[in-house]
TrEMBL record:
Residue ranges annotated for the Ig-like domain, each copy included: 65-160, 163-264
GO biological process: synapse organization
Keywords, in A-Z order: Signal
SMART domains per UniProt: IG, IGc2, IGv
Secretion signal, residue range per the UniProt entry: 1-20
Cellular component GO terms, alphabetical: neuron projection membrane
Name of the featured protein: Ig-like domain-containing protein
Length: 302
């Protein structure tokens, strides 16, 4: 009974479709479709249950996906990755041709659906964001100045067509770090020379400068002729010849846009490293005897 009702309803629905269709050809197709539907129903209802399948009814007359009403097209590759170092400027490109007068190109941060720019205007309160448009290259580049780790994520350059379409860029922000070889403590004989090598890791752009500090003093351009700094790509070397007691203390390697590295320099007088080890061994003995003494005292007290 139930399926009969459904069948009847379908028949009415299809009948109205038939009425709507104008050309004879279409009419023929509909009739064929109608016959198919009836046959399917008969077949399926035999089992006692029938679930209407929309494709049975609509068939080849299914609604076509909406046509995007735009002539614009993107030249920037979709789903690209841009990697920058902390503190540098990230440039996310968006080249799109044949943008109509009424269309706009926007940049959106996917994480929070933050609308950053619309056309040439920046909507974000964050002043580090800026869009530049080049008429020559039809490029709407989003600049993120002083990029920070929290800027990492997915950005979309969107064209205001119906429905909208865009290209996606993933921004990675990495932090470069400095490292001084030879451990955090260095021991040097007085009068000898020492060489501290600072290597910068994970950099995308070599640092524009590397400053060396002795305690609070920048020593790159020190008048002291015993100190020299040699910079190579991603590496800086500090050399101190004929070290004196005054050279002891903390040394910092501070590259532009990278986490700094420290080393503590100890100047040894007369003693060899072996002598130093003996000294520390004596200290252990001394501590042990203190412990023994206090244990003895504790026993006496009992
Ligand atoms: C870019 O890729 C996304 C999926 O990652 C897609 O939704 C979008 O339509 C693509 N854009 C273009 C212009 O093809
Ligand atoms: C050297 O640097 C370390 C770590 O930054 C710090 O703990 C120490 O106090 C510094 N020593 C001197 C003499 O500045």
């Amino acid at each position: 009974m139930k399926s009969l009702c459904v069948l009847l309803l379908d028949a009415i629905l299809l009948a109205s479709f038939v009425e709507d269709s104008e050309t004879a050809g279409r009419h023929a197709t509909w009739s064929k479709q109608f016959k198919n539907v009836l046959e399917t129903h008969r077949f399926k209802t035999e089992g006692g249950s029938w679930t209407p399948d929309p494709s049975d009814l609509l068939g080849e007359y299914e609604v076509e996906p909406p046509v995007r009403d735009t002539n614009a097209y993107f030249m920037t590759n979709n789903n690209t990755v841009v990697t920058v170092q902390v503190g540098t400027t990230a440039a996310l490109r968006c080249q799109v041709f044949d943008v109509a007068e009424h269309e706009t190109v926007s940049w959106i941060r996917r994480r929070d659906h933050h609308l950053i720019t619309v056309g040439a205007n920046t909507y974000s309160n964050d002043e580090r964001f800026q869009v530049t448009y080049s008429e020559k290259t039809q490029d709407w580049t989003l600049h993120v100045r002083y990029a920070q780790p929290h800027d990492a994520g997915v950005y979309e350059c969107q064209l205001s067509a119906h429905p909208p379409i865009g290209v996606i860029t993933t921004l990675n922000v990495i932090e470069a770090v400095a490292e001084i070889g030879g451990g955090p403590e260095r021991y040097v004989q007085i009068g000898s020379s020492v060489q501290l090598t600072c290597t910068i890791k994970h950099f995308t752009e070599p640092p524009t400068y590397v400053f060396w500090y002795h305690a609070e003093h920048m020593i790159n351009y020190d008048s002291n002729k015993r100190i020299t700094v040699v910079n190579r790509l991603g590496e800086s070397e500090l050399r101190i010849s004929q070290v004196t007691k005054a050279d002891s203390g903390n040394y910092t390697c501070q590259p532009a846009n990278a986490r700094p590295a420290f080393v503590s320099l100890h100047i040894i007088t007369g003693e060899t490293p072996a002598a130093m080890q003996r000294a520390s061994a004596t200290e252990v003995q001394y501590r042990l005897s203190i412990t023994l003494l206090s244990s003895l005292l504790a026993l006496v007290a009992l």
